[in-house]
Write a structure and sequence with these properties.
This protein has 284 residues and is mainly alpha-helical. The protein is 70% helix and 0% strand. It has one domain: Orthogonal Bundle (MetI-like fold).
Amino acid sequence: MAEKHRLIIFGRYPFDEQWRPLVATALLMGLLMVCCVRSFWKPWLGLMWVAVLAVYFALMHGGVAGLTVVTTDLWGGLPLTIVLASLSIVMAFPLAVLVALGRRSQMPAIRAVCTVYVELIRGVPLISVLFMASFMFPLFLPQGMTIDVLIRVLAGITLFAAAYLAEIIRGGLQAIPKGQIEAAQSLGLSYWQQQRKIVLPQALTLVVPGIMNSFIAIFKDTSLVTIVSLYELTGAMGLAFNSDADWRPFKIEGYLFITAIYFAFCFAMSRYSLWIEKQLNKSR
């Protein structure tokens, strides 16, 4: 493992440049930990996301400040797993909230569009979505126009995750007593004020375990991007051992290594979910 751990963690990223994904991933992980602390939930946090992501992609891709360009097909290992999971979660959650509200809308057109989206996405496996995003979607683009495979895969995971999250959030919305909405209306609050100040805070509180369960599933589902030749943590482990016949008998050790990494992240997310529940239950 001492000889293969860098290939497993960083994938096919150039060996001499692996300090770049290390620094980029450390910055992204630091930002995620900052976001977990409620006292840091300020307007400047959005600007920090923009800044950190700009630095992340500048370090990973290169082409600036004298850094060598490294195309996205060479990104891999743990940095790819973390960026796919974190960005898909960040983008899927607000989309899921809008879809959940749309499914409960009084406007038939909006309700129908949201229902079709949810049922269509939930009716196919994630592998199919990734396959469509990677191989079928480019066929519909104008000739000469291309979209990076990493962006297409990220969009596919985001849309897939949002459909499942939307149903979890819709369950929380249905659990809110009608009297809460009527009381908000009696105060003269607009629809969006009702949702932002009265309905959504209570609904999201009720479904914290389901939301976190979906987040953990997203993190683990990033292992499926190997089918479109993006070698995240699991795919990089396969590269490390399949490329060297002498190391194939040690696959068990390799799987135990990445299992420990997955468990560490998933366990941390689970404990954070429990902490959130305790904080929200103090008022009860």
